[in-house]
Amino acid sequence: MRRRGYIVPPLSRQKILSKSNQCREALNLGDRKYIPIIPLLEIMHCHDILNTEICDDADVAYRGEAFYDPAEKKIIIPDSVYCAACSNQGRARFTVAHELGHFFLGHTVAFGRNDYCDDNEWRPFIDSEWQADNFAGFFLAAPHLINMHSTTNQVSIEFGLSLQAAEIAIKNAKKPGKVPGLMGTCGTGSVLNNT
Fold first, then answer.
1. d(C-alpha 55, C-alpha 140), whole Å
2. Which domain holds residue 128?
């Protein structure tokens, strides 16, 4: 593993899973397998929960595929990533869920590709990017919803994931103790009907 993000308060994978489940409940997504990530983002924007800005790809190329600005509670997404997510491409959907992870996990430092924690201080559970990646995976494919006998391709289609993310989701679903109890909510209220 390598360091990638800023140092943030430590969170275990279990705590991140619990937080993603809390967010699913708060957003009235429950046990829905396929999360409509772009409509969700747009609803959150319309309800002034989170701002979204779609921009030219060149405007954010130095920051990666997208980024979260905590000062403005805004996710900035390049047009190509937004269009790909609208077209249900798994990697782009994961990118948007990753940025939502920064928001829901309360990360307070804007991330730039060249800004990260010191090698001597780095541990995965305190890395903002590691935390957001885990949140995105759990949020898009809650382990308790994955059929243990599903193929990578089936999980990719059911949950709208890339094949790589689907493979990781299956591994996560097979780990013991995968579903912690829910405690509270994200505090955002219900913004998406469970239809």
1. 24
2. 13-173
